Amino acid sequence: MSPPTSSSSSLAEALSGWPPPVLDPHGPFSNSVTTLAWVLIGGATLIFIGVCVAMWVALYGSDELRARLGGERVVKWFGLILPAAVLLLLLAWGLTMMRGLTTIQGDELRMRVSGNIYWWRVSYLDAAGRELHADANELHIPVGRPVVVDMVSEDVIHSFWVPKLGGKMDMIPGRTNRLKLQADKAGSYGGQCAEFCGGAHSLMGFVVVAHEAADWQRWLAARLKPLPVNLSVDALRGKQLFNEVGCAACHRVAGTDAQGISGPDLTHVGSRQSLGAGILSNTRATLIGWIGDSQSIKPNNRMPAYRSLKGDELNALASYMESLK
Ligand code: CUA
Question: How many whole angstroms separate alpha carbon 154 and alpha carbon 78?
Protein backbone atom coordinates (compact mmCIF):
# COMPACT_ATOMS: atom_id res chain seq x y z
CA MET A 1 0.00 0.00 0.00
CA SER A 2 1.35 3.45 -0.77
CA PRO A 3 1.99 5.43 2.36
CA PRO A 4 0.70 8.93 1.69
CA THR A 5 3.61 11.31 1.28
CA SER A 6 2.16 13.85 3.65
CA SER A 7 0.20 13.27 6.80
CA SER A 8 -3.26 14.66 7.21
CA SER A 9 -3.41 14.01 10.94
CA SER A 10 -4.52 17.59 11.20
CA LEU A 11 -7.18 18.48 8.70
CA ALA A 12 -7.02 22.07 9.83
CA GLU A 13 -3.35 22.07 8.83
CA ALA A 14 -4.22 20.72 5.39
CA LEU A 15 -6.74 23.51 4.86
CA SER A 16 -4.80 26.44 6.24
CA GLY A 17 -1.27 27.79 5.95
CA TRP A 18 0.45 29.69 3.17
CA PRO A 19 -0.23 29.69 0.28
CA PRO A 20 -3.92 29.14 1.01
CA PRO A 21 -5.07 25.83 -0.58
CA VAL A 22 -7.20 27.60 -3.17
CA LEU A 23 -4.04 29.26 -4.55
CA ASP A 24 -1.99 26.05 -4.28
CA PRO A 25 -3.46 23.70 -6.91
CA HIS A 26 -2.28 20.09 -7.15
CA GLY A 27 -4.17 19.02 -10.27
CA PRO A 28 -5.54 20.30 -13.60
CA PHE A 29 -9.08 21.02 -12.38
CA SER A 30 -8.00 23.04 -9.35
CA ASN A 31 -5.45 24.72 -11.59
CA SER A 32 -8.10 26.27 -13.81
CA VAL A 33 -10.02 27.48 -10.75
CA THR A 34 -6.84 29.06 -9.37
CA THR A 35 -6.19 30.80 -12.71
CA LEU A 36 -9.71 32.25 -12.53
CA ALA A 37 -9.05 33.35 -8.93
CA TRP A 38 -5.84 35.16 -9.93
CA VAL A 39 -7.58 36.90 -12.86
CA LEU A 40 -10.36 38.04 -10.50
CA ILE A 41 -7.84 39.26 -7.90
CA GLY A 42 -5.81 41.08 -10.59
CA GLY A 43 -8.91 42.60 -12.22
CA ALA A 44 -10.34 43.71 -8.89
CA THR A 45 -7.01 45.32 -7.97
CA LEU A 46 -6.92 47.29 -11.25
CA ILE A 47 -10.51 48.47 -10.77
CA PHE A 48 -9.77 49.42 -7.16
CA ILE A 49 -6.78 51.52 -8.27
CA GLY A 50 -8.96 53.12 -11.01
CA VAL A 51 -11.65 54.04 -8.47
CA CYS A 52 -9.04 55.51 -6.10
CA VAL A 53 -7.62 57.65 -8.95
CA ALA A 54 -11.16 58.82 -9.89
CA MET A 55 -11.85 59.72 -6.27
CA TRP A 56 -8.60 61.68 -6.08
CA VAL A 57 -9.50 63.56 -9.27
CA ALA A 58 -13.01 64.25 -7.97
CA LEU A 59 -11.60 65.73 -4.75
CA TYR A 60 -8.38 67.47 -5.83
CA GLY A 61 -8.30 67.52 -9.66
CA SER A 62 -8.46 70.64 -11.86
CA ASP A 63 -11.89 71.99 -12.84
CA GLU A 64 -11.44 70.67 -16.37
CA LEU A 65 -10.64 67.12 -15.23
CA ARG A 66 -13.53 67.14 -12.75
CA ALA A 67 -15.93 68.29 -15.44
CA ARG A 68 -14.75 65.46 -17.68
CA LEU A 69 -15.08 62.89 -14.88
CA GLY A 70 -18.68 63.97 -14.30
CA GLY A 71 -19.49 63.93 -18.03
CA GLU A 72 -21.87 61.58 -19.74
CA ARG A 73 -19.13 59.78 -21.66
CA VAL A 74 -17.38 58.56 -18.52
CA VAL A 75 -20.67 57.33 -17.07
CA LYS A 76 -21.55 55.53 -20.31
CA TRP A 77 -18.17 53.85 -20.76
CA PHE A 78 -17.12 53.11 -17.19
CA GLY A 79 -20.54 52.80 -15.62
CA LEU A 80 -22.25 50.72 -18.29
CA ILE A 81 -20.23 49.36 -21.20
CA LEU A 82 -17.08 48.27 -19.34
CA PRO A 83 -18.89 46.52 -16.43
CA ALA A 84 -21.26 44.75 -18.83
CA ALA A 85 -18.36 43.58 -21.03
CA VAL A 86 -16.30 42.38 -18.04
CA LEU A 87 -19.21 40.49 -16.49
CA LEU A 88 -20.21 38.88 -19.81
CA LEU A 89 -16.64 37.75 -20.52
CA LEU A 90 -16.28 36.32 -17.01
CA LEU A 91 -19.63 34.53 -17.31
CA ALA A 92 -18.67 32.98 -20.66
CA TRP A 93 -15.27 31.91 -19.29
CA GLY A 94 -16.80 30.56 -16.08
CA LEU A 95 -19.44 28.53 -17.92
CA THR A 96 -16.86 27.06 -20.31
CA MET A 97 -14.62 26.16 -17.38
CA MET A 98 -17.56 24.63 -15.53
CA ARG A 99 -18.24 22.35 -18.49
CA GLY A 100 -14.67 21.07 -18.36
CA LEU A 101 -15.02 20.44 -14.61
CA THR A 102 -18.24 18.44 -14.89
CA THR A 103 -18.47 16.53 -18.19
CA ILE A 104 -17.57 12.84 -18.40
CA GLN A 105 -15.00 11.80 -21.02
CA GLY A 106 -15.20 8.06 -20.30
CA ASP A 107 -11.76 7.28 -18.86
CA GLU A 108 -12.46 8.63 -15.39
CA LEU A 109 -12.79 6.78 -12.11
CA ARG A 110 -16.43 6.99 -11.03
CA MET A 111 -17.45 7.70 -7.45
CA ARG A 112 -20.49 8.90 -5.57
CA VAL A 113 -20.39 10.96 -2.39
CA SER A 114 -23.48 11.84 -0.43
CA GLY A 115 -23.66 14.52 2.22
CA ASN A 116 -25.14 13.68 5.62
CA ILE A 117 -25.32 15.66 8.84
CA TYR A 118 -22.23 15.76 9.49
CA TRP A 119 -20.37 13.13 7.49
CA TRP A 120 -19.89 11.78 3.96
CA ARG A 121 -21.05 8.48 2.47
CA VAL A 122 -18.53 7.37 -0.16
CA SER A 123 -19.13 4.82 -2.94
CA TYR A 124 -16.71 3.51 -5.55
CA LEU A 125 -18.62 2.75 -8.75
CA ASP A 126 -18.00 0.58 -11.79
CA ALA A 127 -18.27 1.98 -15.32
CA ALA A 128 -22.03 1.32 -15.32
CA GLY A 129 -22.50 3.28 -12.10
CA ARG A 130 -23.04 0.27 -9.77
CA GLU A 131 -21.48 0.35 -6.31
CA LEU A 132 -18.26 -1.67 -6.02
CA HIS A 133 -17.22 -0.65 -2.54
CA ALA A 134 -18.78 1.44 0.24
CA ASP A 135 -16.85 3.61 2.66
CA ALA A 136 -17.11 6.92 4.52
CA ASN A 137 -15.26 10.20 5.09
CA GLU A 138 -12.19 9.30 3.05
CA LEU A 139 -11.72 9.05 -0.73
CA HIS A 140 -8.84 7.07 -2.22
CA ILE A 141 -7.95 8.00 -5.78
CA PRO A 142 -5.17 7.18 -8.26
CA VAL A 143 -2.68 9.92 -9.19
CA GLY A 144 -2.95 11.36 -12.70
CA ARG A 145 -6.42 10.03 -13.49
CA PRO A 146 -9.53 12.20 -13.44
CA VAL A 147 -12.22 11.18 -10.96
CA VAL A 148 -15.87 12.00 -11.57
CA VAL A 149 -17.79 12.37 -8.33
CA ASP A 150 -21.58 12.22 -8.44
CA MET A 151 -22.94 14.26 -5.55
CA VAL A 152 -26.17 13.84 -3.68
CA SER A 153 -27.48 14.79 -0.27
CA GLU A 154 -29.50 12.71 2.16
CA ASP A 155 -30.78 15.63 4.25
CA VAL A 156 -29.90 19.31 3.75
CA ILE A 157 -27.67 21.18 1.31
CA HIS A 158 -23.95 20.51 1.75
CA SER A 159 -21.06 21.50 -0.46
CA PHE A 160 -18.12 19.31 -1.45
CA TRP A 161 -14.77 21.08 -1.64
CA VAL A 162 -11.18 19.85 -1.91
CA PRO A 163 -9.49 23.13 -2.78
CA LYS A 164 -6.20 21.60 -3.95
CA LEU A 165 -7.84 19.09 -6.31
CA GLY A 166 -10.92 20.69 -7.84
CA GLY A 167 -13.73 23.18 -7.77
CA LYS A 168 -16.53 23.36 -5.26
CA MET A 169 -19.98 21.82 -5.80
CA ASP A 170 -23.22 21.91 -3.84
CA MET A 171 -24.96 18.68 -2.84
CA ILE A 172 -28.67 19.33 -3.14
CA PRO A 173 -31.40 16.93 -1.92
CA GLY A 174 -33.25 15.39 -4.85
CA ARG A 175 -30.65 16.06 -7.50
CA THR A 176 -27.29 14.78 -8.64
CA ASN A 177 -24.49 17.22 -9.28
CA ARG A 178 -21.14 16.30 -10.66
CA LEU A 179 -17.56 17.43 -10.19
CA LYS A 180 -14.17 16.23 -11.37
CA LEU A 181 -11.08 15.89 -9.20
CA GLN A 182 -7.54 14.99 -10.09
CA ALA A 183 -4.29 14.83 -8.15
CA ASP A 184 -0.88 15.25 -9.81
CA LYS A 185 1.02 13.90 -6.81
CA ALA A 186 0.50 11.20 -4.17
CA GLY A 187 -0.48 12.53 -0.77
CA SER A 188 -3.37 13.48 1.48
CA TYR A 189 -5.57 16.42 0.66
CA GLY A 190 -8.02 18.04 3.06
CA GLY A 191 -11.67 18.61 2.10
CA GLN A 192 -14.40 20.53 3.84
CA CYS A 193 -18.15 21.07 3.65
CA ALA A 194 -18.51 24.55 2.21
CA GLU A 195 -22.22 25.22 2.71
CA PHE A 196 -23.67 25.95 6.14
CA CYS A 197 -25.64 22.81 7.05
CA GLY A 198 -26.13 23.13 10.81
CA GLY A 199 -24.30 23.83 14.04
CA ALA A 200 -21.37 21.48 13.40
CA HIS A 201 -20.98 22.46 9.73
CA SER A 202 -17.40 23.61 10.26
CA LEU A 203 -16.61 20.14 11.71
CA MET A 204 -17.70 18.34 8.53
CA GLY A 205 -14.39 17.54 6.89
CA PHE A 206 -12.91 14.66 4.94
CA VAL A 207 -9.65 13.47 3.43
CA VAL A 208 -8.73 12.56 -0.15
CA VAL A 209 -5.77 10.18 -0.35
CA ALA A 210 -4.04 10.02 -3.74
CA HIS A 211 -1.99 6.87 -4.45
CA GLU A 212 0.34 6.09 -7.36
CA ALA A 213 -1.76 4.21 -9.95
CA ALA A 214 -0.36 0.71 -9.25
CA ASP A 215 -0.66 1.21 -5.49
CA TRP A 216 -4.23 2.32 -5.91
CA GLN A 217 -5.05 -0.88 -7.86
CA ARG A 218 -3.57 -2.95 -5.02
CA TRP A 219 -5.48 -0.86 -2.48
CA LEU A 220 -8.78 -1.46 -4.28
CA ALA A 221 -8.13 -5.19 -4.72
CA ALA A 222 -7.43 -5.47 -0.96
CA ARG A 223 -10.61 -3.54 -0.16
CA LEU A 224 -12.73 -5.90 -2.25
CA LYS A 225 -11.53 -8.94 -0.24
CA PRO A 226 -13.25 -10.01 2.99
CA LEU A 227 -11.81 -8.79 6.30
CA PRO A 228 -9.41 -11.09 8.19
CA VAL A 229 -11.20 -12.84 11.04
CA ASN A 230 -8.49 -13.40 13.66
CA LEU A 231 -9.26 -10.88 16.39
CA SER A 232 -7.52 -10.31 19.72
CA VAL A 233 -9.44 -11.13 22.92
CA ASP A 234 -10.09 -7.41 23.44
CA ALA A 235 -11.27 -6.84 19.88
CA LEU A 236 -13.52 -9.89 20.07
CA ARG A 237 -15.15 -8.51 23.20
CA GLY A 238 -15.53 -5.19 21.38
CA LYS A 239 -17.22 -6.96 18.50
CA GLN A 240 -19.79 -8.47 20.89
CA LEU A 241 -20.38 -5.11 22.55
CA PHE A 242 -20.77 -3.50 19.13
CA ASN A 243 -23.90 -5.58 18.62
CA GLU A 244 -25.12 -5.49 22.24
CA VAL A 245 -25.06 -1.73 22.83
CA GLY A 246 -26.67 -0.90 19.49
CA CYS A 247 -23.77 0.31 17.29
CA ALA A 248 -24.75 -2.25 14.65
CA ALA A 249 -28.18 -0.65 14.21
CA CYS A 250 -26.58 2.37 12.51
CA HIS A 251 -23.20 1.14 11.30
CA ARG A 252 -22.17 -1.51 8.82
CA VAL A 253 -19.15 -3.78 9.07
CA ALA A 254 -19.04 -5.90 5.91
CA GLY A 255 -19.10 -9.65 6.50
CA THR A 256 -20.66 -9.35 9.99
CA ASP A 257 -24.17 -9.00 11.38
CA ALA A 258 -23.70 -5.23 11.60
CA GLN A 259 -25.57 -3.90 8.59
CA GLY A 260 -26.87 -0.48 9.70
CA ILE A 261 -26.66 2.16 7.02
CA SER A 262 -27.79 5.36 8.71
CA GLY A 263 -24.28 6.05 10.05
CA PRO A 264 -20.84 5.85 8.45
CA ASP A 265 -19.66 2.46 7.16
CA LEU A 266 -17.05 1.17 9.61
CA THR A 267 -15.71 -1.82 7.63
CA HIS A 268 -12.30 -0.13 7.28
CA VAL A 269 -12.45 2.49 10.00
CA GLY A 270 -9.16 1.23 11.48
CA SER A 271 -7.28 2.29 8.36
CA ARG A 272 -8.74 5.78 8.15
CA GLN A 273 -6.48 8.75 8.76
CA SER A 274 -9.11 10.66 10.66
CA LEU A 275 -12.16 10.18 12.86
CA GLY A 276 -15.42 12.09 13.17
CA ALA A 277 -15.33 13.15 9.48
CA GLY A 278 -11.89 14.66 9.25
CA ILE A 279 -11.65 16.34 12.63
CA LEU A 280 -9.55 14.01 14.82
CA SER A 281 -6.49 11.91 14.12
CA ASN A 282 -7.31 8.21 14.36
CA THR A 283 -5.77 6.88 17.59
CA ARG A 284 -6.91 4.64 20.45
CA ALA A 285 -7.48 7.70 22.64
CA THR A 286 -9.60 9.60 20.08
CA LEU A 287 -11.59 6.43 19.31
CA ILE A 288 -12.43 6.02 22.98
CA GLY A 289 -13.29 9.71 23.29
CA TRP A 290 -15.50 9.64 20.22
CA ILE A 291 -17.43 6.48 21.17
CA GLY A 292 -17.92 7.61 24.76
CA ASP A 293 -18.98 11.17 24.11
CA SER A 294 -19.04 12.26 20.49
CA GLN A 295 -21.62 14.90 21.40
CA SER A 296 -19.06 16.97 23.27
CA ILE A 297 -16.69 16.74 20.29
CA LYS A 298 -19.23 17.39 17.52
CA PRO A 299 -22.44 18.76 19.06
CA ASN A 300 -25.75 17.55 17.59
CA ASN A 301 -24.23 14.90 15.37
CA ARG A 302 -26.58 11.93 15.07
CA MET A 303 -24.58 9.53 17.22
CA PRO A 304 -25.71 9.52 20.85
CA ALA A 305 -23.10 9.80 23.61
CA TYR A 306 -22.43 6.43 25.28
CA ARG A 307 -21.57 7.78 28.72
CA SER A 308 -22.83 4.61 30.43
CA LEU A 309 -20.02 2.50 28.95
CA LYS A 310 -17.18 1.70 31.32
CA GLY A 311 -13.52 2.32 30.53
CA ASP A 312 -12.74 -1.31 29.71
CA GLU A 313 -15.80 -1.54 27.46
CA LEU A 314 -14.78 1.60 25.54
CA ASN A 315 -11.29 0.19 25.26
CA ALA A 316 -12.63 -3.10 23.85
CA LEU A 317 -14.82 -1.27 21.33
CA ALA A 318 -11.88 0.91 20.26
CA SER A 319 -9.73 -2.19 19.92
CA TYR A 320 -12.35 -3.73 17.61
CA MET A 321 -12.48 -0.52 15.55
CA GLU A 322 -8.70 -0.56 15.22
CA SER A 323 -8.82 -4.13 13.92
CA LEU A 324 -11.11 -3.09 11.06
CA LYS A 325 -8.57 -2.31 8.37
CU1 CUA B 1 -22.35 19.90 5.55
CU2 CUA B 1 -21.86 22.17 5.96
Answer: 46
In this prediction, residues 271-300 reach a mean pLDDT of: 94
Q: Rounded to whole angstroms, how far apart are CA atoms 199 and 197?
A: 7
- Asked if 150 contacts 160 with a C-beta cutoff of 8 angstroms, the reply is no
Residue 118 CA, ligand 1 centroid: distance in Å = 6
What is the position in ligand 1's atom list of the atom closest to the CA of 201? 2
Domain 109-224 has CATH 2.60.40.420: yes
198 CA: nearest ligand 1 atom: 2
CATH code of the domain made up of 233-323: 2.60.40.420
Distance 167 CA to ligand 1 centre (A): 16
Domain boundaries, the chain: 24-102, 109-224, 233-323
Segment 110-129, tens digit of pLDDT: 999 999 999 999 999 998 88
Max mean pLDDT among 10-24, 137-151, 227-241 falls in: 137-151
Q: Look at the pTM and tell me if it is higher than 0.85.
A: yes
What are the residues whose beta carbons fall under 8 Å from the beta carbon of 95, sequence distance 6 or more? none
Using CB distances shorter than 6 Å, the residues near ligand 1 are 115, 118, 158, 193, 195-197, 201, 204
Single-letter code of the amino acid located at 135: D
